[in-house]
Every structure is written in structure tokens, then in C-alpha cells.
Amino acid sequence: MDDILLALSNGDWHRDPGTISILLLTVLAFLVPMIYVYPPFPPRESDALAETHSKVGLEPSAAKPGLRAAQALPSDVLSAGPPRVQSLWIYPVKSCAGIELDHSTVLPSGLEFDRLFTFAQLKSPFPVRLDSDADEKSRHGWEFITQRQFPALANVQVELWRPDRVKCERRGEKVRESYLILRFPWMEEGFRGTLSWVAAKTLRGIDARPEKEIMLPVEFPSEADIKNKDYKYESVKIWKETVTALNMSSELSDELQRYLGVSNKLALFRIDPDKLREVYRGAPTSEVAGYQPVTGFQDAFPLHLLNLSSVRDLNDKIAQDENLKTLDARRFRANIILTGLPPYEEEKWKSIQLVSDGKSLEETADFDVSCRTVRCKMPNVNPDNGIRHDKEPDHALRKYRNVDEGAPLNGCLGMQLTPMFKKTGSRVLELESTVKIGMEVKVKGFGSHKYIKQ
């Protein structure tokens, strides 16, 4: 160090490569820890959430109970009974990444927080004038989008943050609002892009990549928020149904539309809890259920059940290649994933009860097994990178799983569920139950199924 100080005082430091190297290393040794502890980058809007909220969900670790651990099991172990709940998933934003849970509340519309939002694009065969008649305007409207058209939706990560009572008490704050954080890969050009790249690596590790984020309230907005944030009630089409929902497009960024590759106008809709879609085809009637079955932005029914042994059986029928080395159950976007039963055994069920420990009836969840899940090509999209496979598993589904006469030429995998709740006579006591990982499946009724088209 004395030699360095002497060289600096004499003005000869720039002539000695060794001195320069030591000087640079000394500066870096001081700056790098300082940058890591006190990063000179603006915090993200969501960073403050960690002070009062906790993130909901299981981390993707094979050491924990859940889907990843089960998918590594041999087939004979996978199908060994009794049947149990292995994994639970919600998808707060339709077609975006899901969140794995260890428990969830069951509502008439499905698992709590599931499919609250959907993206939509404005579709029209031609421009519409302001003075156009109603018939012309009816062909100009919002239609939901999914990974079927825009596979990059798979790369939109979703986090659910809920108030943490201990954290709030420690800070002396009362916080009730929950939030969703949507993140997608995005890097600006030029210096700003370089800065975002450095910030990502510094703040979140060497494997991190630059991202943009969108922060959304989970609770349905108040009338005041709707007015202040310029939200609007508009019609959006889900398959052949049209529902009135809240257009919250003012929360979106142009970067997201460009990332997804949507050329039409892009919108984000929030389902209105007072305007849920009523479910009829194949679902129990309101007289049988004790309430009118409903759903949010799910495709057709409130919940989707999947048997991991059935996924494994289909996987064994697919020719593997470098783009599809194994069939991940996440491709099928189920809410409840089971182990402990043979392939396709679930298709024989008509009603089931999930029991907390296999004996006690104090904590149970009941479901009508309403119909098979008819598959489109969306499972061809890899949930890890948003890349669509040219052929599989759609080809295998159509070849080996064309099993429902109500949906000829289509493959089926999984079952659609309608929640059932405890009743006294014809009156439902409470429209709520709980499901947890490890609950045992008790089959209450068997029967056949035939899919009913819209």
C-alpha cells in the first residue's frame, strides 16, 4: 500500500501496470460490497410489499411436497394408493404462470384467487365508425387471449402477496389489501438496457434477467377507484359466452403488448364477483347443488382435476425429442393434482370427497365430477419458456385419448369439477370449504360421462 501511495504522490502511477491493477482491485473491493449492500438503482414498486406482506405459495423445490417431487417418482409408486391430493394450483391471471399452494379455500367459482383476470384483444373484421349501427358494432369487441395464440404468456410470472399480520403489527400499520405482481422479461435498448441488466444481476443474482412489472389490486375495485383509475365496464367474449367485466387496461404498459406480440389493442379484464358466468352443461342443477354453479374466467367449470398417473401414461406414448423430453403436468393447468390411483381411474367418478386425514369428516371438501376435460393445443406450450411444440402432446391426445363421444376427434385428459357444499335440506349452510395437500380422496359415486358442447 505504501508503494501505491508513493506512486500516486509522484504522479508515476499510470506508468506502472502493476500499480494500476492493484489500484483497480482495491477500488473494486471497496465498491462491489457497497453496491451490493446499497445498490444505486431505484427500487421496484413491489419491493416495499415485503415490509408488510408475505408471498403466497410453495417455492419450486423438489425437497418440499408438491408437484415437482411427485413427477420424479417411478410409475408404480405414483399409482400406489390411496389416492391423495399431491399438488394445488391457482392461476390468478388466465394463461399466465401459476402459483403452487399447500392449501386453498374453495368457493363456488373455484379455488380462491383463481382466474380473476384475463387478457383480451380488440377484434374487428373492419374499422368501426362512431355512427355505426348496433349490428356493425357487435362484430367489434373484446375477445380473451391465451397461450394458444400468444405462447409468451407462459413467461409472465405471477406473484400473490397478502398482508402479514406479524409484519404489520411490528410496524404499527393496518394493511388489508392483497396484490398481484406480474413480471415479464424486458430490456430497453442502449444505456438504459445495460443499466437494467446490471441492476438485475446485482439485486437478484447472476441468473436474473431484466424485467418489467405490473402491480394489481386483488380485491375488486371500489366505485371511487373505478372512477379515479379510469376503469370501465365492458363486454368480453370467453369462447362462445360474453360476460360484462371490468376493463383495467390503464394498468398495462406498452412493453407488455410488444413482448406478447399482440398487434391489436390489448386489455386486462377483472371478473366482477357479482357478474360471474353461470354453469349449466354437465354441472349439477341449482336444485341439486343448493346454489347456481358459477365460474369466473375459467374455460368452462370452476375447477380442474388431474391424475398424475394419467399424465405419465400419456408421456410414455409420446416420442421424445430435444424440445419435449418429458411431459410436465403443468402444461395442463389443473387446480387439483392427484397421486395414488391408476391411469384414467378418475374418469369413472361422479362425486368425490376430500378428507383431511382419511378418517375425520370434520374437514372435508366435496365435488361433483361433472365431465372430462377436452383438450386443445395449448398443452403444446412449454411452461418454462413459452415455446410451442410443433406436434405434442396434441397429436398423442387425439390418437390415444379420443374417448368421449361428446367430443369426437378431440383428446381428453383430466376432469372438470363443481364444488358441493354442506346442506340442511335444500339450504346450503356455507359456500366455502378447504382443500390441502395430503387430503385423501373418497369416491362417493361412480358413473359414465359425455361431454356437452357449448
TrEMBL record:
Organism domain of life: Eukaryota
Domain (MOSC) ranges: 274-444
A Pfam short name: MOSC
Bilayer-spanning residue ranges: 20-38
Annotated GO MF terms: catalytic activity; molybdenum ion binding; pyridoxal phosphate binding
SUPFAM superfamilies, per the entry: MOSC N-terminal domain-like, PK beta-barrel domain-like
Protein name: MOSC domain-containing protein
Organism the protein comes from: Pyricularia grisea
Lineage per the UniProt record: Eukaryota, Fungi, Dikarya, Ascomycota, Pezizomycotina
